[in-house]
Write a structure and sequence with these properties.
- By secondary structure, the protein is mostly helical.
- The chain has six helices and no strands.
- Helix 1 packs antiparallel against helix 5 (about 70-80) and helix 2 (about 30-40) crosses helix 3.
- The longest helix has 13 residues, at about 15-25.
Length: about 100
């Protein structure tokens, strides 16, 4: 399936799903319905990503960052790849690029 890490039986996106659950479900920092609307997707689709039932594709992750301005999502993805530097201009985030 390509989604599991060697040995640990964990999915590659476990850390991201953990952060999504924490921010959307545990702390309710973000409202799933409101963010889904702003992202142009159905509530059920965003909930599937937040709950870990589906893996969030990169375009949806970029859109999520654009809507929430929550760079923690990108930090989680990039933490295992120190050679990758992700920088977005504030104007690009606000424009949803």
């Amino acid at each position: 399936m390509g989604r599991e890490r060697e040995g640990a039986g964990q999915r590659w996106d476990d850390a991201l799903v953990g952060v999504l659950k924490y921010l959307f479900i545990s702390t309710r920092k973000y409202d799933i319905d409101e963010v889904a609307r702003k992202m142009g997707m159905e509530y059920d689709d965003l909930y599937a990503f937040v709950s870990g039932r589906r893996t969030m594709p990169a375009p949806a992750l970029f859109k999520l960052v654009s809507v929430t301005h929550e760079m923690l999502f990108m930090d989680i993805i990039a933490k295992d790849y120190p050679e990758i530097s992700i920088r977005w201009k504030k104007s690009e985030i606000e424009e949803g690029r």
